[in-house]
Amino acid sequence: MNKRYFTIGMAGHIDHGKTTLTKALTNVDTDRLKEEKERNISIELGFAPLFEDDEIQISVVDVPGHERFIRQMIAGVAGIDLVVLVVAADEGVMPQTREHLEILKFLGVKNGIVAITKIDRVDEELIEIVKEDIFDELQNTVFEQAPFVLVDSLSHKGVEELKTDIIDTLKAQEMRDVRGAFRLPIDQVFTVKGQGTVVRGTVYEGSIEEGQVLTILPKGLHVRARQIQVHHLQVQHAFAGQRAAINLSGVTKEELERGDVLVSSEHFIVTKTIDVAMQVVSDLDYIVKQRMPIKCHIGTSEVMGRIVFFDRNTIETENDEVLCQLRLDEEIVTKRGDRFILRRPTPTETIGGGWVIEPRGEKYKFGYRTIEQLEQKKVGTAKERIIAALVEAKSLSLHELIKRTSLSEESLLTELTSSEFVLIHKKEYTMQSIMETLLEEFTDRISYHHTQHSMKPGINKAELLHHLQKDFPKTLLEYVLDYGVERDLLSKNGQFVALHNFIPHVPKNWQKRTENMLSKLKQDGFQVRYLADYFKDDGIPDYLVNDIKHFLEEEEKIVSLDGQYYWHGEVFQEAVTRLKSETTSAFDIGIAKQILGLSRKLMIPFLEKLDQLQLTVREENKRFWK
Q1: Which residues form the signal peptide (predicted)?
Q2: Predicted local distance difference test score (pLDDT) of residue 37
Q3: Residues 63 and 45 sit within 8 Å (Cβ to Cβ)
Q4: CATH architecture classification, 4-171
Q5: Which burial class, exposed, middle or buried, applies to 68 when counting CB atoms under 10 A from its CB (0-12, 13-18, 19+)?
Q6: Are 183-263 and 269-379 in the same CATH fold?
Q7: Separation between Cα atoms, residue 327 and residue 90, nearest integer Å
């Protein structure tokens, strides 16, 4: 897949023009709610398409700037690839600007552009002062090299320049991982009349396709993606970096909430205790105390919990990372490397943020031994590095593993002797758990195909592999397919793949009528009516007729004479046997009519069918048995 997908965010203080600038860039008003219009502030996340060509697609999210709506701001920014920091020329850097900067740092957003808005309201001298103010504020942050663009959203000054800067920056940037397992933290749940439950969010990683079976974590609900939309357009797939709305079957709106996560793999961990590396904000208003209540924002989740230190009891100010643990009141979905924000519930303030070292935290003793243990986890053992690389890429050669893990060949080969790892075709390594997950994906897809197409011998192998090649290397797919056959879970028949014990059959709710139809056809012997009349008599709908007819032919339960007249398979075999037993090596149409008593309209198609099946060879007016 050559096309790349990105989501950018607008961040900054309330009333500094984020929504107006978004509208100037996209021609979309992202203030959707009535109360947003009345109060002139953004409460919910607003999304709009910014740019698309053959190479790249960019969406923009306008995140709320008001302090009371910081929760939505964190949920929106958590999935973005680039931020436009909006600062009004008539006010400069404000408290919310600083807080947004801290949050962006903790969430690991590395690319940024500064947009100084409302430039038509002030003179050039004040603009220079504001630029210096922003420049000073950005020192020692990831945005200290960020370009500045002067814009006025109403007159459109600088808007095209800003848009060009965004596009150029993202074209030079790597997109998120589309080969990994699909993950979409849900930030909105709603219903559409006649469609049912819809969830919306930014695809963090992987990709999704229409019809795919997914899981809602941490609830463990199994659903199917009935329909996918990106910017109100129905699509077959959505990829990492895109904003997507997904119509789900198998779940109600009341069963879901913001913070739930839609995933395609069982590898994602549900947990309430996480080991983390945290940094605190530069200007704490209050001391952070041992086991104090915190509100943790991770993905789109907002969960209460407590912070547990192992080498201190308080933090007043700290520039370095602090290794500690979060013990949460509710389960979340996370993995190593995920970013989070911590806020004090009351009095409200952002405390800090960081990244997840270990999603499956345990209870540790207070002391430096625990800190040493967490330091080792932070760096990652050789085995953990290999697992992380394989979870992301699914299978890798030894050379690729050396590059990704920075381990020596000797260290790698020592670790790879573990039964957790599997060598594929003496070329690439994968994990047993990845193979089991892929095998489960195979069986789910094949099972679904059987329910939808019960009369077919299985799913076409090329079709099955095509749908999964975006997530898994083809060598791994082929290997696991053979692995499933060896374990008697799957079977291969030519180009078709099926579950091991699957037998093609007419759909169960039409089996009885089909049996009745066949019985009547058999009873009529040689003197049959049009086959369509038999289907009609038994109430088999037109949309099923061709499929059932083709299936019955494949199973040799019916034999076509001329495409309209069909005999029951046993009747056809009876005619062949009788004619062969009562003729010599050669016979003509007259002899055949005497033996079978058929009219010409059925006799000729029957004899031509014998030729077609290569049971006979016609030479002038005679036929010879082969």
Answers
A1: none
A2: 39
A3: yes
A4: 3-Layer(aba) Sandwich (3.40)
A5: exposed
A6: yes
A7: 43
Q: Average pLDDT, stretch 249-268?
A: 88
Whether the pLDDT of residue 601 is over 50: the answer is: yes
Question: What stretch of H or E contains 386?
Answer: helix 382-393
Question: Predicted confidence band at 411 (pLDDT cuts at 50, 70, 90)?
Answer: confident
Rounded mean pLDDT of 395-407? 82
Separation CA 296–CA 341 (nearest Å): 6
What distance lies between CA 304 and its chain's CA centroid?
A: 28
Is the bond leading into 347 cis (omega within 30 degrees of zero)? yes
Structurally, at CATH architecture level, domain 508-625 sits in: Orthogonal Bundle (1.10)
CATH of span 183-263: 2.40.30.10
| Number of Cα atoms under 13 Å in the Cβ half of residue 147 | 13
> What pLDDT score does 322 carry?
95
Q: Domain 269-379, CATH 3.40.640.10 — does that match?
A: no
- Residue burial 132-144, b: 16+ Cβ < 10 Å; e: rest: eebeebbeeebbe
For residue 441, the surrounding DSSP H or E stretch is: helix 432-452
Round to whole Å and give the CA distance between 57 and 230: 11
